[in-house]
Amino acid sequence: MQLSRDQLLRAYSQMAIIRAFEERLHDEIKTGDIAGFTHLYGGQEAAAVGVCEHLADDDFIVSTHRGHGHCIAKGCDVKGMMKEIYGRADGLCKGKAGSMHIADVSVGMLGANGIVGAGAPQAVGAALAAKMDGKGKVAIAFSGDGACNQGTTFEAMNMAVVTKAPCIFVFENNHYSEHTGFDYAVGTNKDIASRAEAFGMKVWRANGSDFFDTFDTMREVLDYVRAGNGPASIELDTERFYGHFEGDPQRYRGPGELDRIREERDCLKAFREKVTAAGLLGHADLDAVDAAALALIEEATTEARAAAPPDPANVTTDVYVTY
Asked: Mind listing the pLDDT tens digit for each residue in 61-117?
C-alpha cells in the first residue's frame, strides 16, 4: 500500500515522538522525581505505530507494562501522559495510574497493565462488545513474548476462537521476558504465532523493526478480522533498546548486543533510509519532524514538573463505582 506524503510524515512523527518521550523519561527518572517502576518502549516504535495507524478511536487496544508507545500511537495526549507519569492531578488518570496503568477510553486505549498476559482477556471482552455493536470494530491485545507462556493468554485466545470475537493478538517478540532470553523461556517450537494457530485462528508474521512490513501486514490482518472471520494473531519480531525496567543492569545481554541492535535494527533509521532512498521524503523533512518531537516532549516535561499533585482528599475517587 503506497502511503501519501502526509501519511508518511505522520507515521514518522508518531515514532519520533515515542522515541523522544522514552529517551527523555530515561533521563528524568534519574532525578528521582518519578515514582514507581517504568518500562521503556524505545526501539519498538514501528510495532505500535504500524498497528495503530490503521485504527480509529472506537477500535480498542489493551496494552502492557511497556505501554507508553501504544498510548501515543493510539492517540493519547502526550502532555497528559507525562503528567500522569509524574503523578500530577492533570494527568490522563488524575495522577493515580502512573506509568503502568495509563488509560484513555476516549481514544480506545483501555489501559496498560502491570500483569503479564492480563490484557488479553480484557481485549476479548472489548472485542465481543464490538461484535455485538455490529460496526466492524476490533480490539487488540498487545503482549510481549513472555505473555505467550501465560494461561490467561491461552484462555483468551481459545475464547476468542469459540466466540468468533474480532480480537487481534499482537505479540511483540523483543527476545526477552524480563531478564530471560526468548530462546530459553519458550519451548522447542520457538514460533509464537503457531501457538495462536493451534487454537484455530489465522496468523501472520512481520518484521516489527520495519514500519512498512508491520503496516502492510497489519492491514491484511485487519481486513480479515473486520470481514467477520473471527480472531487473528500477528507476531512482530522487534528489539527493545533499554532494560526490562529503568535501573535494570542488563547483565543478561551479550557483549556488544545493544550496540548491534541500535545499529542494525533501529526502526526510525530504517524508515529514514527507505523513504529518502525512494525520494518520498527528504532528510530536511524528517529533521523537522525530529525537532518538533523534541520540542513537544520538552514542553510536556516542563509542564509536568510544574503541575500540581492530586489532592489527598480525592484518594478514594475514581477507584470503585460505589463504596
From this structure: 999 999 999 999 999 999 999 999 999 999 999 999 999 999 999 999 999 988 999
Fold (CATH) for 5-314: Rossmann fold (3.40.50)
Cα Rg of the chain (Å, integer): 19
Give the pLDDT of residue 12: 98
Instruction: Please give the Cα distance from 243 to 205 (Å, whole number).
Output: 25
In the predicted model, is pLDDT for residue 227 greater than 60?
Answer: yes
Contacts of residue 279, Cβ cutoff 8 Å, sequence gap at least 6:
none
Q: Are 224 and 246 in contact (CB under 8 A)?
A: no
Q: What's the one-letter identity of residue 222?
A: L
φ, ψ for residue 85 (rounded to 5)?
-65, -30
Q: What is the mean pLDDT of the segment spanning 170-187?
A: 86
- Say yes or no to pLDDT of 148 above 90: no
Model pTM score: 0.96
Res 185 pLDDT > 90: no
Cα separation of the two ends of the chain? 52
User: Which residue type is seen at 291?
Assistant: A
